[in-house]
Amino acid sequence: MKKILVNIGLLFIGMNLNAITSESVLTESKEIEQRIYKKYENIQGDPEKIAISVSNEIILAANKNYEKYKDLIISKSHKKFKNYIEKYYTDSQSAIYHLIQMNDTLFPKEIYGYQYSTENKTAVTTIAIESHILNLSILDDYYSNKAGFESNEKKVYDYLYFRGESKTKKEYMEMTPKEINAILDLKRMELNREILQQQSKSGESRKKELIEISKNINNLNKEYINYFKSYETLISGMKIETKYKEKMLKLAKFEMAMSLTFLTNELKAGK
């Protein structure tokens, strides 16, 4: 198995993936969103229905874009490599689904209003999808321009960094794998603590919703564990220097840390 994985990694080096870079992913994602917002600019009708339509269309477009990048990589790779990409894609899609489910229960429109609820859903979901595309594009950043890897890596950190985060981007970039794992555990605890605090102050109906949110968080954690494992398997199959492997795996966990920070801060702000 180890020999097969190494060979797959060597095949990847020869691919022409110049179009799949972190910068091109971020640029295209922004352009897609702008086109959809512009499309709905002058549409008249029920504001709530329009907001939901915009959110759904942006999420669907982001997901189609993700599938496009995934298929492009697979089309240029050896058939043995397909299984690892597909497994990563399937696990990441499952994690995204549970993230949407948790966001819907975390910010119900009955409490937060349809605009607040749909905006959060759109932001959390599209950033998660873009993050998973970036996890693939960062491989091309490594193989096509190793000298510029740190510069591209910084662009991803800049894009995903959440303003409400207590740690700086520099601190995150310099963390060891052990330290980023500890941060993830801490952020899960912070989110759970905020939910418990709100449960103690809420009415019965909201308490039931918060209990459901706790279940969704547990499910989400399980899905992300599977997602991280499949990404680690993918990265481990490449002929990549240890230093860069750690950077790629840490970046995937940084993405999750930012999602947890966002959800916790939004929950606090909206209570």
In short:
This protein has 11 helices and no strands.
Task: Give structural notes.
The chain has 271 residues and is mainly α. The protein is 83% helix and 0% strand. It contains eleven helices and no strands. α6 packs antiparallel against α11. The longest helix has 33 residues.
SSE ordering: HHHHHHHHHHH
Query: Main sheet?
Result: none
Quote the distance from N terminus to C terminus.
51 Å
Summing up helix and strand content along with how strands pair, one would put the structural category as: mainly alpha
Q: Could you report the average pLDDT, rounded to the nearest whole number?
A: 82
Q: Based on DSSP secondary structure assignment, what is the total number of beta strands?
A: 0
Strand share of the residues?
A: under 5%
Q: Which ranges are low-confidence, i.e. pLDDT below 50, for 5 or more consecutive residues?
A: 1-17
**Which outline best applies?**
globular
- The number of distinct helices, counting runs of at least 4 residues, comes to 11
Report helical residue fraction: over 70%
- Rg, rounded, reads 19 Å
Features:
single chain, 271 residues, mainly alpha, 11 helices, 0% strand, disordered N terminus
List the helices and strands and how they pair.
Elements: H1 2-13, H2 22-39, H3 47-75, H4 79-106, H5 109-112, H6 114-144, H7 149-160, H8 169-173, H9 177-201, H10 204-236, H11 242-270
